Amino acid sequence: MWIDTHCHLDAAEFDADRDAVVARTRGAGVTQVVIPAVEAANFDTVRLLALRQGFTYALGIHPLYVMGANEGDLDRLGEALATHHIDPRLVAVGEIGLDFFVPGLDPATQQHFYVEQLKLAKRFGLPVILHVRRSADPLLAGLRRVGFTHGGIAHAFNGSEQQAQAFLDLGFKLGFGGTLTFERSLQIRRLAATLPAHALVLETDAPDIPPQWLYKTAEQRAAGETARNEPGELPRIAQSLAELRGWTLEQTAEITSANARSALPRLAAL
Fold first, then answer.
1. CB count in 10 Å sphere of residue 4
2. Strand order in the sheet with 2-4
3. All structural domains of the chain
4. Residue 148 in this model has a pLDDT that exceeds 90
5. How much is the pLDDT for 227?
6. For the chain, how big is the Rg over CA atoms in Å?
7. Full-model pTM
């Protein structure tokens, strides 16, 4: 059994053939997918999609969306969590975090939404799914400041060994996906090969972060070619991890699925 711990299945890129994508996902042996929200406007969308497909979901406001959000959106998140926090398919608060790579995002606004969402996750006893982009240290500082102890997943991790260990010490797992399939991704591949086995979970971030075999150059994209990732690509991505670790594909599925259930405990009941 494979678990895709991060997939935006509600994205517009899947509108034309979402059911076919899900069929390919199940056909590839991916039996569970976590669908994180990115803004208050899609809380109901991801929840209903997860329920309809037998998947799971997370509710939160993504750092790339906070500039268009307001305090009312935090209130909506609190209300949604109050209403659905006992839903067994609600596995986390997310996708939340900090992004210090994309220009034009106010750091103070990001920090405010991040900390307030951590407080909500703490109040309702839920793990978090963290967006980590040139922001590992301030994310860790926020976790410590809030006293957050429910763990979760540091999505698309690309930090240092020291930062990785700091997340692990706080009860987090680290998400790896399509980027590790590129030979030039030296740091990510080294981390995937050397971190403790209990640290690793798999994700696609579909439709984003395509693996090497789906990647399109800037020239190809300018010419109209697309590189949509799908959750059904997860086992092939996992093959790259298996080769780096010296594991069989079966071992890789067993280890990463167990880690996902540890990071997001409600997965275990499903």
1. 29
2. 2-4, 30-36, 56-59, 90-99, 128-133, 152-155, 172-176, 200-202
3. 2-8+40-269 (3.20.20.140)
4. yes
5. 87
6. 17
7. 0.97
